[in-house]
C-alpha cells in the first residue's frame, strides 16, 4: 500500500463515482477500477458498496478513508516542514476562499508574497462557506478564508482573525427620498418604515444572507423580498437601478466602484460586520509561505473594512 493508492480511495470516496474520480486523478477509468480491486484484495474487505449509485462506503471503507486522510495530511505536513528548512524556500499555498473574494484580497499582497517566496505556488479553490469547510475537513486545502463568527466555529477548527468588514445598505440615490423613511434627528434609515419597500436578497447558501436575516430578526420585521440572486454583485447592481434596496459586504461596493451607481445608506449606530477569518484544522502545520500570506492579509486589510 502506498500514498498513490490512499489517494485513489479517498478521491473515489469524495467523488462517489469512479468515472469522475478517474478524471480528477488523470488516469483511465479501467485502470482506477483495477487499482481499487487490488487494494480491496490486499485489505481483505470491500471498501465501496457498488450496488448503490452514487457509491457508498462500507464500514471497512469508512475506516480506510478516515485513516488515509490522516496519513495524507501527515505527508503534506512533512513536505512543508522539510521545505521550510531550506533558506528562502517554503512549500506551496493551498487555500479555499469564497467566489469573488480571491481577486479582492490576493491582488494587493501577491507581489510581496512572490518576492519573499518566489518558488511557492498559490493554489486556491472557490466556493460557498459550507463547501469550503467541507474541503478543509477533507484535507483538500490547508486553510480557508471565510466570514465566520467566533461562537460558531466547528470543533477542532482554529481561527486567525483578519479583519471586520462592514455591511452597508445600498439603494439608488433617490430610493429613500421621502423624509418619512428617515429617523428624526438622525441621518439613518428606519427599518420599520421601509419594511414594505422591495428588498433584493442574496440566496441563503451565502453567509451574507445569514447575517442579513439576523438584522431583520433583530428589528422584528419581515422584509418584502422582491427577488433572490446568486451574488452580492448582482444585488448591488439591481439595487442601483432602483429595483429595491439590498445589504451586502463592503467589499462588493469597493470592487464595483463607480460601476454600481448606488448609494450607501446608514441604517444602524452599530451596523453588523463580516468577521473575515483564516480557518484551519487544529494541529495542521502551515508552512512559512502560508503563514506569511495570512500575516500580509492582516496588515493589508486591518482597518480597511470600515
UniProtKB/TrEMBL annotation:
Domain HTH lysR-type, first and last residues per copy: 1-58
The record, for InterPro entries, names: HTH-type_LysR_regulators, LysR_HTH_N, LysR_subst-bd, WH-like_DNA-bd_sf, WH_DNA-bd_sf
Single GO molecular-function term? DNA-binding transcription factor activity
> Which keywords appear in this protein's UniProt record, sorted alphabetically?
DNA-binding, Transcription, Transcription regulation
Q: Might you report a single GO cellular component term? A: cytosol
**In this entry, which stretches build a coiled coil?**
none
Q: Does the keyword Transcription apply?
A: yes
The question of whether DNA-binding is a record keyword is answered with: yes
Similarity remark: Belongs to the LysR transcriptional regulatory family.
The protein here is known as Transcriptional regulator
Q: Per the UniProt entry, what species is this protein from, by scientific name?
A: Acidaminococcus intestini (strain RyC-MR95)
Amino acid at each position: 500500500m502506498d500514498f498513490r493508492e490512499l489517494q485513489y480511495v479517498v478521491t473515489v470516496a469524495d467523488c462517489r463515482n469512479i468515472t469522475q474520480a478517474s478524471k480528477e486523478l488523470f488516469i483511465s477509468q479501467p485502470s482506477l477500477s483495477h487499482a481499487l480491486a487490488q487494494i480491496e484484495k490486499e485489505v481483505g474487505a470491500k471498501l465501496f458498496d457498488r450496488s448503490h449509485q452514487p457509491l457508498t462506503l462500507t464500514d471497512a471503507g469508512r475506516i480506510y478513508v478516515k485513516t488515509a486522510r490522516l496519513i495524507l495530511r501527515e505527508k503534506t505536513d512533512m513536505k512543508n516542514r522539510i521545505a521550510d528548512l531550506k533558506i528562502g524556500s517554503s512549500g506551496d499555498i493551498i487555500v479555499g476562499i469564497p467566489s469573488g473574494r480571491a481577486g479582492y484580497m490576493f491582488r494587493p499582497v501577491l507581489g510581496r508574497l512572490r518576492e519573499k517566496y518566489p518558488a511557492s505556488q498559490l493554489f486556491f479553490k472557490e466556493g460557498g462557506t459550507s463547501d469550503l469547510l467541507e474541503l478543509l475537513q477533507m484535507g483538500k486545502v490547508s486553510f480557508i478564508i471565510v466570514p465566520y463568527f467566533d461562537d460558531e466555529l466547528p470543533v477542532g477548527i482554529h481561527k486567525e482573525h483578519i479583519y471586520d468588514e462592514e455591511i452597508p445598505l445600498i439603494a439608488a440615490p433617490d430610493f429613500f427620498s421621502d423624509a418619512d423613511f428617515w429617523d428624526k434627528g438622525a441621518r439613518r434609515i428606519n427599518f420599520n418604515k421601509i419594511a414594505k419597500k422591495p428588498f433584493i436578497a442574496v440566496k441563503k447558501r451565502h453567509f451574507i444572507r445569514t447575517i442579513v436575516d439576523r438584522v431583520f430578526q433583530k428589528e422584528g420585521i419581515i422584509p418584502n423580498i422582491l427577488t433572490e440572486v446568486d451574488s452580492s454583485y448582482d444585488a448591488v447592481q439591481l439595487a442601483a437601478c432602483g429595483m429595491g434596496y439590498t445589504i451586502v459586504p463592503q467589499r462588493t461596493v469597493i470592487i464595483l466602484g463607480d460601476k454600481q451607481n448606488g448609494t450607501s445608506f446608514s441604517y444602524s449606530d452599530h451596523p453588523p460586520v463580516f468577521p473575515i477569518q483564516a480557518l484551519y484544522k487544529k494541529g495542521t502545520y502551515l508552512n512559512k509561505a502560508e503563514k506569511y500570506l495570512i500575516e500580509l492579509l492582516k496588515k493589508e486589510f486591518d482597518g480597511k473594512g470600515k
